[in-house]
């Protein structure tokens, strides 16, 4: 049986056509993207601060923006971190501008979850929450909270964008205690030095008195000899 010389070419052409169709279909699907930024404030033991986060509350605020050409159906998870615990009652999600979106709110262990059927592209969400520092962090910046924005792309794949927030927590209890201990050590050293100096001063006074006494005795002896 003679082989058709065009069969291999037909297969190759068919594969190319299928690839072009798939790529064209993907290009026609509207894209979606998510971005955001967060900041935090913490007073700690700083009594002189006048920020909204009083005492050991860590105030976290930020925005999440949905961009691209397609809406998303998000599940937003707000939670604390390894060294913080979330104040669930403080969590709030707002829609900036005139747009209105209904969210379903639920709690899960130490997290708060917001769900919405649709968040259109061009929407900016404002997220606010508070956490409490529970100790155990090493030196340097501490992750104080995290927001995970989960959604599905128009193509059906799942995506997640995570927005964590760091803070130096300079006035956290460990740092304040270390500073007080250093001051105490310096104070004890100064106190010891003052005690030593006071003893030296007393000995010096005693030495002067003894020297004056000996001088008086010698002067008396000299007077007796002169007589």
From TrEMBL:
<protein>
    <submittedName>
        <fullName>Uncharacterized protein</fullName>
    </submittedName>
</protein>
<keyword id="KW-1133">Transmembrane helix</keyword>
<keyword id="KW-0472">Membrane</keyword>
<feature type="transmembrane region" description="Helical">
    <location>
        <begin position="196"/>
        <end position="217"/>
    </location>
</feature>
<keyword id="KW-0812">Transmembrane</keyword>
């Amino acid at each position: 049986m003679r082989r058709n010389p065009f069969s291999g070419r037909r297969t190759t052409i068919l594969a190319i056509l299928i690839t072009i169709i798939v790529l064209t279909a993907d290009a026609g699907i509207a894209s979606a993207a998510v971005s955001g930024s967060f900041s935090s404030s913490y007073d700690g033991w700083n009594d002189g601060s006048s920020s909204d986060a009083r005492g050991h509350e860590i105030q976290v605020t930020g925005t999440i923006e949905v961009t691209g050409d397609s809406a998303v159906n998000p599940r937003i998870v707000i939670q604390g971190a390894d060294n913080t615990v979330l104040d669930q009652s403080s969590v709030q999600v707002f829609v900036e501008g005139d747009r209105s979106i209904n969210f379903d709110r639920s709690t899960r262990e130490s997290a708060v979850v917001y769900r919405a059927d649709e968040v259109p592209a061009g929407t900016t969400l404002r997220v606010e929450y508070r956490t409490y520092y529970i100790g155990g962090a090493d030196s340097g910046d501490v992750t104080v909270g995290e927001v995970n924005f989960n959604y599905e792309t128009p193509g059906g794949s799942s995506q997640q964008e995570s927005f964590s927030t760091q803070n130096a927590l300079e006035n956290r209890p460990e740092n304040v205690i270390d500073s007080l201990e250093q001051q105490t050590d310096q104070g004890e050293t100064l106190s010891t030095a003052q005690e030593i100096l006071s003893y030296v001063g007393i000995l010096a006074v005693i030495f002067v008195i003894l020297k004056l006494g000996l001088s008086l005795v010698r002067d008396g002896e000299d007077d007796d000899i002169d007589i």
